[in-house]
Amino acid sequence: MISIETHNLTVSYNRRPVLWNIDFELPTGKIIGIIGPNGSGKTTLLKAIMGLVPTSSGYVKIFNQDLEDVRSRVSYVPQRESVDWDFPASVMDIVLMGRYKKNNLFKRITKADRDIAAEALEKVNMLEFSNRQISQLSGGQQQRVFIARSLAQGADLYIMDEPFVGVDAATEEAILNLLHDMKNQGKTVVVVHHDLQTAKDFFDWIVLLNTRMVAAGPKEEIFNKKLLQEAYGGKLNVLSQVGDLMKEKAFNVREK
Amino acid sequence: MEAFWIILVGSLIAVSCALLGSYLILRKMAMVGDAISHAVLPGIVIAYLLSGSRETLPMLVGAAALGVLTTVLIELFHKKSNLQMDASIGITFTWLFAIGIILISLFAGQVDLDQDCVLYGEIAYVPLDLWITESGYNMGPRTVWIASGLLLLLLLFIWRGYKGLFITTFNEEFAKALGIGVAFWHYALMGAVSLTTVISFESVGAILVVALLIVPPATAYLITTDLKKMLLLSSIFGILSAIGGYYLASLINGSIAGAIASVAGFLFLCVWVLELLRKKRVISI
Fold first, then answer.
1. Is residue B215 within 8 Å of B265, Cβ to Cβ?
2. Is B220 part of any domain?
3. Is residue B152 part of a domain?
């Protein structure tokens, strides 16, 4: 089964391509990381998949269909910083948005919607905060609220933009556990992630991106020096050299 | 009785403005409201010249068309040529407003529109313009009926469209990902702002309507963290401004519209200082 397929996907801003000829097929039931250096087009890729940015060429298929036909099976978690957290709303108000649909927008929120939203909050350990104003949440709590909103949609495919940025260790752990639960239920999770160090532990599958696609596949195949170097270029070189130096120093200290 | 009609019209318009203004400031579009309120002027004059009367309907259509054109132009300059949002607002509305002023002065003889009236409004004349039915029955001032109709329409819009306005205001991208027509809600809101502005024209004028659109919602924003309460509180602040403004004006024998906007500003200042003191106390505890 294929969750997301892109074919020759190209996206440009002001005629400069930020994504070039992206071609991949992602499996279902896996936790998939999209990684690459800053400015490599990770967020743009998610937005292109969700139809939020115009594409210059190529297409995206989700579960072998157009997005419009499978919208209810796909959930999108935008970057936490993309909204104003001083907005006058409670945690519950935000999570209930996950129950909004094109065809129920003019209808009232039902008891069933509230139950589903409460259940989603429970899953991220935020139920006791449901009446809390969102301006009073920490970064990690904000991220959990966003994930709860997404869970309330009851989708099969979850697309998350940098959910691990600026969150505390407890939230990171909670999110990871949640991702594994979702995977065990046969859901597919696609996560944009910028930290190479943790990527290997977090994901089963990796898409390496740097404007064009460097590689995509099970993490064992992707995590080799050649491919990483290709994606990260000089930056990785510097990083690994620093790492080597640190090791040497640590060793020296112990020797004394 | 005169005082009652004036305060009633002032309050009806203040509440309409407060409701829409709440959404404008949350969308960080307060100055777009300002722009629309000015830019509808040529629409009104053109509608007047074409229809040859001061009937409400053609004016509403003219104003709404210009209001939407304003937002389209602002977006166009901003998105297509990367001009800053505020610069694009500044260009669009001054230009359109200027055209309106020229049209009024050109056709001053034919147009029963007065520049002073357009700019500063004349709410004191409200009780003079009565709606008298064909059988000769006095229905009270016409503006009261128009302003009530507007408020009812807006209440219906916000009641039925609460979820749509809420989600597109808080997180437009997420709404888009759900397949919700974001542009529809944007233009519906802008259309509503245009309608409200043109109806407020006669009473508070093009400049002061901005005060009613922004100041009461901003005051409410200071003290609440719940959208529904914010809508309610900003309406209350709007009504208080209308009542306070009327009595302030009769006390000093000055402009009513000016007094309403001053009271709104004064209320904001009071709430702001009180909030500051309250926060200080919370911290010192």
1. yes
2. no
3. yes
